[in-house]
């Protein structure tokens, strides 16, 4: 799978058109402006709250996935790295709940996440995890843009930098386990 082969990649394309471009030559409706400006508070707050709920909804599936990945791990080092990532993710869950409660005054509603689908192999699981971390960074930046409190900004920076570090660790495990070579050999044999 190539760098651009997954659905979520959008290199710095926010479809943002600054308000001063709203001239007769390029008219924007109010709805277009609301949908495209991810940087303007408070318009972006509801979207951020939805993304927080989305992040919270995957908790059960994530726990099962991490246990599966740990059980498939090829070495004790792999198990320790994945366990550390899992522990960070559990901390993120608590932080997202805190932010949601601070912003709304309510506990986030419990939501059903997706059912766990077992990857074809350990390498496929590492690939899924790596792409998941990249996707999380993209979503979490949008949450960060809606934060006004210094505490919430700091929490989001902590979470985002953890996700970037997790991606680096998964990339290391992917490479260490020869996953790229395995995929290449399967492609050459087909």
UniProtKB/TrEMBL annotation:
InterPro entries: Ferritin-like (IPR012347), Ferritin-like_SF (IPR009078), Rr_diiron-bd_dom (IPR003251). It comes from the Bacteria. Residues 50-173 form the Rubrerythrin diiron-binding domain. This is Rubrerythrin. It comes from Lacrimispora sphenoides JCM 1415.
């Amino acid at each position: 799978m190539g760098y651009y082969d997954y659905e979520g990649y959008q290199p710095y394309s926010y479809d943002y058109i600054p308000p001063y471009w709203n001239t007769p030559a390029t008219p924007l409706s109010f709805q277009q402006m609301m949908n495209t400006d991810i940087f303007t508070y408070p318009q972006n707050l509801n979207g951020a709250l939805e993304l927080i709920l989305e992040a919270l909804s995957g908790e059960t599936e994530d726990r099962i996935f991490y246990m599966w990945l740990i059980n498939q791990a090829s070495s004790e080092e792999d198990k320790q790295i994945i366990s550390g990532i899992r522990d960070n993710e559990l901390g993120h869950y608590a932080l997202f709940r805190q932010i949601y409660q601070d912003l709304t005054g309510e506990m986030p509603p419990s939501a059903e996440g997706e059912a766990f689908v077992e990857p074809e192999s350990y390498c496929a699981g590492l690939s899924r995890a790596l792409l998941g971390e990249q996707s999380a960074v993209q979503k979490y930046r949008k949450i960060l843009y809606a934060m006004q409190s210094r505490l919430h900004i700091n929490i989001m920076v902590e979470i985002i930098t953890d996700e970037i570090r997790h991606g680096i660790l998964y990339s290391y495990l992917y490479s260490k386990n020869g996953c790229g070579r395995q995929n290449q050999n399967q492609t050459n044999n087909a």
